[in-house]
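Quick start: what a row looks like.
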Amino acid sequence: MKYLLTTVIIGIMACAGLMGQETDTTIPMIYIDSTGQVFTKTDAPAYIFIAPAENESELTLVPSTDKAANPMEWDGSGKHYIMHKDLERKMNIRFKVMADGTPPKTNLTFSNGLIFRYENLIFTESNAVATLTSTDDMSGVHSTYTSTNSGKFSVVSQPITFNEHDESVFAFYSIDNVGNAETPQEYRVITSSNARVQMDNIYFETNSTLLNSQSTAELQKLLAILKQFPKVVMEIGAHTDSKGNVTYNQQLSERRAQAAVDYLTSRGISKERLTAKGYGETMILNECKKGVECPDSKHKENRRVEFVITKVNAE
């Protein structure tokens, strides 16, 4: 009987997982675009089948003991060729397959209402509007998914509006046409004007107002933000632990807040844009209130600096 080499089937009986996210869609590991170009996920296995010439639908998997033959594995991303000899036409036939091993990249862009970004923290005006734009250099973007406050991911509905006096955790990621999924990006989005944001790594030793190198590095980030977004006016608040005298702690926190403000104003930020305020031990974060014994590692959590946006000036 005459047999015909008919096809290469990629990722048989397999679908791409979506990074463990709870979405309603699975993406096949093979995709053919409008030009006929075949794309496959880099880690998808490829199988070669044959069929009788008079019945091409009767596929049979080509057996082989060679581990490199069936199934085959793609040697990284990019162009790959599968070739076989056509004995009737006395020529080699080459099939090009594009192996895609890179997920899309998605960016969150505000068309209006952005006040500023601080690492994974976003401050916006009321009803700020944003869009998600995703790009993929090979098989193309299949879908973009979003989630709010750790809810189920669903296909993005654009544009995205962040409402007044709202605070949420907003996450998103995209998947390409062969199932490569981007690692989800997560932002805390704040539209409330009185939200307090604790600055990482700005702590003080007991009874001290000195800023160490770790603290100044964090203040450098805030300095860059204030220079980039000159409309923002904020309060810098400092807090102490509960050890010691209440009055002393209040005065110490005021000096600490002023130390942070002085650092920023000495580097070009107008004094009119910053207010120093000490809170003493009135806003303890943990169980270490007056009279409760705690290790210093716990007390340290309360010796902190926070900022609050108090105003956004007009242009």
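That is the whole record. Residues 1-20 have pLDDT under 50 and may be disordered. Helices lie at 213-228, 246-265, 296-300.
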